[in-house]
Amino acid sequence: MNKVIDPSLKSWIEVNQDSDFPIQNIPFGIFKTPGGDSRAATRIGDKVIDLYSLALHGFLDGLGFHPDLFKCETLNAVIASGKTACRALRTRIAGIFEQSNPLLRDHPEIHGEILFLAETIQMLMPVKVGDYTDFYSSIEHATNVGIMFRDPANALLPNWKHMPVGYHGRSSSIVVSGAEIHRPKGQTKPDNAELPEFGPSRQVDFELEVAFITGRQPDLGTSVTTAEAEDHIFGLVLFNDLSARDIQKWEYVPLGPFLAKNFGSVISPWIITLDALEPFRVSGPKQEPAVLPYLQFDGDHNFDVQLDVLIQPENQREQLVCHSNYKYMYWNLAQQLAHQTVNGCNINIGDMYGSGTISGTTSDSFGSMLEIAWKGTKPVKFPDGTERKFIHDNDTIIMRGYCKNENLRIGFGEVVTKILPATIHQSRIINQ
Amino acid sequence: MNKVIDPSLKSWIEVNQDSDFPIQNIPFGIFKTPGGDSRAATRIGDKVIDLYSLALHGFLDGLGFHPDLFKCETLNAVIASGKTACRALRTRIAGIFEQSNPLLRDHPEIHGEILFLAETIQMLMPVKVGDYTDFYSSIEHATNVGIMFRDPANALLPNWKHMPVGYHGRSSSIVVSGAEIHRPKGQTKPDNAELPEFGPSRQVDFELEVAFITGRQPDLGTSVTTAEAEDHIFGLVLFNDLSARDIQKWEYVPLGPFLAKNFGSVISPWIITLDALEPFRVSGPKQEPAVLPYLQFDGDHNFDVQLDVLIQPENQREQLVCHSNYKYMYWNLAQQLAHQTVNGCNINIGDMYGSGTISGTTSDSFGSMLEIAWKGTKPVKFPDGTERKFIHDNDTIIMRGYCKNENLRIGFGEVVTKILPATIHQSRIINQ
Predict the structure, then answer these.
(1) Is A141 among the residues known to form the active site?
(2) Strands A174-176 and A166-169
(3) What predicted TM-score, i.e. pTM, was given to this entire model?
(4) A208, A152, A154, A138: which is closest to A360 by C-alpha?
(5) Could you tell me if B63 and B87 are in contact, meaning their C-beta atoms sit under 8 angstroms apart?
(6) Domain B132-420 in CATH 3.60.40.10
(7) CB distance A289–B195 less than 8 Å?
(8) Does residue A267 carry a pLDDT above 90?
(9) Contact call for A343 and B244, based on CB within 8 A
């Protein structure tokens, strides 16, 4: 079976030239039906395709998926069917919607049960995330942060070029695109203050990231090699790793970021499979000094995914603030997963692994406001006359990702996050 | 309904004077029946009590628990029934097993379905842990680490007395007592080396901790106050937070511990409810300087739980290496949960929150080998003539916890962890 769906294939569903979802993409997600059920889905053009209905009508027969598997709140059980089964599923779906296939095309009476207009339905969290790790794998980002907060002459810490540095994140606060997140409150300590103070963060920031979702669960004590890593990865999403810089600065020594990072972490709803990204595989930056054997790898494990970040102040038009690319990653996903498991740490289906902020070499490719406005010294001007060093209340952050060559565009869609003002009351819990 | 079961109550199940599980304890756990099913259970003396069988026989009627709720792989759904319902359940169980109650006592023909000898059955993970946070709340431990690794004159970092410093841990690698964990492999960099090296950790250590398990799940954006915190806490377990010191030292700057802490984290199987610990509530250390308002609290939130750590080399007798107490905690559990959620971070039922290593003021009360052997400078001698700076291969670490006054002993049982040699092969995965 081919990993890649023939780039010349066309669908009988109309697909605009600039659509992220041609018949070659076939991503996976979860949507809420007009009746309120949650279902596994894929998407072609602006049509969300209900896999449960498709299965009920027999279109997925013989693949080994029971229809009920697609009547689900998360994709975890679908992913657990294995990469080979999911590859066969994508191939089948492409076949059903290929323009010359009349089987469903010529039965418009059932289209209403299977096809939903994307803008009319709500997408839900695609997976139940068990554990979430955030890496720190962009050399440009790590260097920028090192210059700003430590020593410009020794911006990278000694371990950085020897391992994909990462830390455990919070799973509970990962939510799907469309989230409205209150500005977090917490402790901060201004440089000139004697004591810390408590209040809403003044430095809420985005971090532009791509995250991979794992699709297998080896036992505790098992390590995954770089050669095996991609077999354990189901696909990728866009990820806005919201951060409160002032909270982070005061709390993070010595045990790392905590409340600065767990008030809301937002992902895009469609998981783009590695198979769909295959045509956009590229080599990564040269790693110097040579890495330890367990981090060495064969082949290309970087992907040419163009990434845009836009900020939309309330009732204003969106403005591009960053254009970056996932291909800049110094440490690739195979190395990240090999590192994560080299000590025997077990992974589960649905775990999420963020890339870390993806910055390029120029200031218009930096993946956070911290870097773009260079610690507040270079505020970004907006058409309405306002300036931004960080994110303002009621700003909406929009991230988009897409791969493009002369024949094909495979996109991620977008991840949209609105920042609301801090809540006034500390608690809304009523005793049981 | 009383939180506390009358200390003078006796059970018709025999309970030795030094048992951790008198009729006043009534903890919750999950065990595997001889038939291989997993069931919710409690324990009195050396008898594990199958709550599913108890419910099937009608003993739990009228409490609102469907018997099937106890035929479960984890306690999460039982806990979700709420604190009031679980309090009524404990009270009912105490009534059934109270010595004068003949209802079950005088029907020995069904005892075999309900009562199992603890040493003959296997305990399983009591909850599915969604997220796990590890705090760092013992002032003695933080000071010891600061003296050893940073500056003896400024051992505590500036933020330490202003917030319960914590970090996100890995949930997937939390396992239950009885675990056999391979020594982890990873990167370390000896002080005199130019480059890092790869191999088995030479500094595997235990950390003596107590962890609380949450029992409610407020929405993202909600904060839990110190006054509300205990309503959100279901109970406590003992926790051996295994650590690889040499891996930690090289990896942890700037984002915190990662692979040093996620190769196996071991908890005791019985969750001891806060209600059972009520008679052992004590005040904590005075907090100076005063903490910010959101961390202030009324009442006592420390607990007098005596804690022992023993090490048993293979084929040798166990030796006590530490006697500490949970009451030493500088930051209490109400403050920890208020801090965790002050930014709106959501918690879930079954989440776990570790105390951090619990050290006392004297060297025989230090909660890790790092401190007991003072960074390797004071090795611990064993009866077989061996010495230990850290944990050796095939050593078993045993932690015990218990509260005791003149009338009552409420115990946690134990958490037992065996360290096996590092695995030779990096991978045992076979392609699908």
Answers:
(1) yes
(2) unpaired
(3) 0.97
(4) A138
(5) no
(6) no
(7) yes
(8) yes
(9) yes
Transcribe A148-166 into DSSP letters: HHS-GGG-S-TTTTTS--E
Tokens of B260: 């040093």
Q: What is the pLDDT of residues B52-99, one digit of tens each?
A: 999 999 999 999 999 999 999 999 999 999 999 999 999 999 999 999
Widest Cα–Cα separation across chain B: 74
- According to DSSP, residue B261 is labeled S
C-beta atoms of B168 and A263 within 8 A:
no
Secondary element (H or E) of residue A256:
none
Taking residue A279's Cβ as centre, other Cβ atoms within 10 Å add up to 18
Give yes or no for a cis peptide into A126 (omega within 30° of 0): no
Phi/psi at A310 (nearest 5 deg)? -125, 145
Q: Is B84 on the interface with A (CB under 8 A)?
A: yes
ipTM score of the complex?
A: 0.96
DSSP string, B93-148: HHHHHBTT-HHHHT-GGGHHHHEEEGGGSEEE-SS--S-EEEE---HHHHHHHHHH
Other residues' Cβ atoms within 10 Å of the Cβ of residue B410: 27
Give residue-wise pLDDT tens across range A171-202. 999 999 999 999 999 999 999 999 999 999 99
List chain B residues with CB under 8 Å of A232.
Answer: 429
Distance CA(B432)–CA(B429), nearest Å, equals: 9
Distances (CA, A) of A213 to A181, A188, A235, A272, A348: 23, 33, 6, 10, 9
Q: Give the start-to-end residue ranges of the domains of chain A.
A: 3-123, 132-420
Q: Minimal CA–CA distance to A294: which of A352, A336, A263?
A: A336
Instruction: Give the lowest-confidence range in A68-77, A354-363, B149-158, B353-362.
Output: B149-158
Q: Give the tokens for residue B174.
A: 């939390």
CA–CA separation, B300 vs B356, rounded Å? 19
How do strand A409-420 and strand B29-32 relate by DSSP bridges? unpaired
Residues of chain B contacting A421 with CB distance shorter than 8 Å: none
Going by the DSSP 8-state scheme, the letter that residue B63 receives in this structure is: S
Strand partners, A420: A182
DSSP string covering B182-226, please?
EPPEEEE--TT-SS-EEEE-S-EE--EEEEEEE---PPTT----H
- Residue carrying the six token digits 């903490």: B291
CATH code of the region A3-123: 2.30.30.230
How many residues are present in chain B?
Answer: 432
A185 interaction partners in chain B (CB closer than 8 Å): 223, 342-344
C-alpha–C-alpha distance, residues A143 and A141, integer Å: 5
User: Is A345 in contact with B170 (Cβ distance < 8 A)?
Assistant: yes
